[in-house]
Amino acid sequence: MAVKKPAKGGAPKDKSGNVRLSHLAKPLSLAVALAAVGYAAYASSRTPAREREPARPASRARGAAEPEASAHVVHPWRRRMADVRMTMPECLAKQRKLTHIPAIWPGFHALCVESVSPSELVVLALVRGDDSVRTVRGRSVLDVLDALKPLLESDYGQDDPTIVDSVYAYPPHAWELFSPVGEHITHAQVQLSAGDLACVYEGGQFIWPGWEIGHVTNIEVPVVDASTREEGWRVVPITTVSLRPLAFELSGFLTDEECAFIIEYASKRLFPSPLAHMDSSNRKEEDVRTSTQTFMTRGGSRVILNLEHRAHNLTRLPYELGESIQVVKYQKGQKYGAHRDFFSANDYHQQPAMLASVEYGARNRLATLFWYVSSVHDGGETFFPRALNASGVEYNPWNGDHEDCYRGLAVKPIKGNAVLFYSLLPNGHLDERSLHGGCKPRGADDVVKWGANQWIWNQPQRHHGKTFPRKDRPARPASSSRPGCEDASPDCAAWAATGECSRNPSYMLASCRASCGHC
Known about the structure:
- Helix content is 18%, strand content 22%.
- By secondary structure, the protein is of the alpha+beta class.
- Among the domains are: 81-201, no CATH class; 474-519, no CATH class.
- The chain has a 9-stranded antiparallel sheet with strand order 7-8-9-17-14-20-12-11-10, with helices on one face.
- A hairpin with a 2-residue loop joins strand 1 (108-117) and strand 2.
- The longest helix is centred in the middle third of the chain and has 14 residues, at 302-315.
- It comes from Diacronema lutheri (Unicellular marine alga).
- Residues 321-460 form the Fe2OG dioxygenase domain.
- InterPro entries: Oxoglu/Fe-dep_dioxygenase_dom (IPR005123), P4HA-like (IPR045054), Pro_4_hyd_alph (IPR006620), Pro_4_hyd_alph_FE2OG_OXY (IPR044862), ShKT_dom (IPR003582).
- Keywords: Dioxygenase, Iron, Membrane, Metal-binding, Oxidoreductase, Transmembrane, Transmembrane helix.
């Protein structure tokens, strides 16, 4: 078995068996609720070679509240790798286009498959630094990913202040390979052919490639007829409206009947919208957010479950990573100032519960799918004040005004449509350009904007009760006067503090002898 060295600044991903966590039952207060967010049994299934877990299955419904809901059959993704076959020249052209988008997008790498045989996978990687194409070989997908790391890992984007990583030394994410339509690739000989385009995500989760502003991708999603309850499929076009943050406008995501159901459900349960407060926060809730809201019980009815699975089917993210749907209501003059959906561990040093919830930076909200449940003719847009235009620069340099709805990108609320955007970059770091807000509805006194949020996280909780040291306050490497009892890396002490000596003994006991006490 190959020996794996821990990644710089953190420990390698450990084995994790099936874990069972509780759902977020109800919003006690936002800060407490988010700290308590958990997910039903997340059955990992990545290939067991090299201490990895087996490949993830398609999302499944679990623990639905009603027999009718739990009996619902979840369809797999409609588009698969076989639907996007291409020639090698076509792949190389798409690879170059994805690699050189006019926005820093660290952690994403496009590969072209040169050949696949029972004993070898050969891919072509485009290296950003020198714009060269390199050939990489391996017996399996995991071998190829391991070989790619020293070639593709770089300080790409490290000097961009809008890209934020945690100051804590949390275990790094496992790199994963996906098709451009979200199929998780684990067995090259079965899933890949020469000329295929494959996408590497350093953060381990699929994110729809944006290609370019104005690009349209048609995605088939499962729907249920409101009158006959017959299941079928509908094409939802998603149009790229921004590359940083990566954001899409979805047309016809909800039906009129579903919008009516959401409004009826929420109208009886609304309460004032709270905020999660950071260590240094001094903004009053009424200065930031003046809407009302409620949550839909996770899997609480057939309609709710259908909506949840449609969201996860479209994003290609496992059902177990979703939160309860939040429904919001904005009346005339109500708004939500510019804010972030992620929770930066760097803002919660004095809040252990929140640090534990985001696992010191390893775990966070990856995607937000915001549904427009009603139309607003004047105002009510979702705005992104720090979005980049097609040339890769801000529309207007942001002036720090959290209520300036029209400085950057604004998506108009149209009933049944939705906006999908990502708070994390492909490498798992936080994207400050995902700053967004809700503009005030304007017009008649009775104008109302209804919307709903489906937040989806990048991973389940894996490190229960563990703490991780700060990288900006590194532990001193252990030393010993005994010859040969020393550490080969200055990171050994931090790795040992997180339990790597027992989880990764092949490397640690040979290279971190002093920190592991193995002398």
